[in-house]
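Hello support,

Our group uses your service weekly, and this is the first time we've seen a run hang past the timeout. The protein is OsmC family protein. I'm not sure whether the cause is the sequence or the server load. Input pasted verbatim:
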Amino acid sequence: MKAVVEWQGDVCFEAESGTGHKILMDGPPDHGGRNRGARPMETVLMGLGGCSSFDVVHILGKARQDVTACRCELSAERAEDEIPAVFTKIHLHFVIAGHGLKENHVKRAVELSAEKYCSAAIMLSRGGVEVTHSYSIES
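Update from on-call engineer: The timeout came from a worker crash unrelated to the input. Re-ran successfully.
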């Protein structure tokens, strides 16, 4: 896996993945940015949500659950008054919608993502971040 990050001036950077997809990262005005893109740490958090959501939807599909929507709501805490201001806690809450979803399948999908499949969650937790998960089901 490869990526390239290129400075765009001030505190703005454009990142391009090895597959050719681009995102813009920028800082807030009080740090020299113009707020044109997500902050770099926000992209880490969004990547975690995407990685884990992919797993949950895939696992539920293999369990023949009729999923119509999946939303992952993330909240994170960072070390205060420290450099680097690393994540200390991250919570992922999955809101799963579908037809006839079985709670035991949803619970198991979230657990499997957290404990076995989500590379981002496992990497962060091994690095000392407290990563927790919850879920709710909407019909």
